Automatic annotation (TrEMBL):
This is Uncharacterized protein. Gene3D superfamilies: Winged helix-like DNA-binding domain superfamily/Winged helix DNA-binding domain. It comes from the Bacteria.
Amino acid sequence: MLELIDDQPGVRAAELADHVGRETQPFKADVRKLKERGLTESLETGYRLSPRGRLVLGRLRASGRG
């Protein structure tokens, strides 16, 4: 999910959920969990990674898990 949000900042949850074949409400619930952990930020429309989220994603990519 971090990669999806990083690749498509500002995109509505419904579009992101559709892109990965998920229903919107469960997808939004998962994004809220990321926000609670300080990994994403809500925009007027859509989301973006927070500085902490970018750091975590970078570490996941470096370890081959992202």
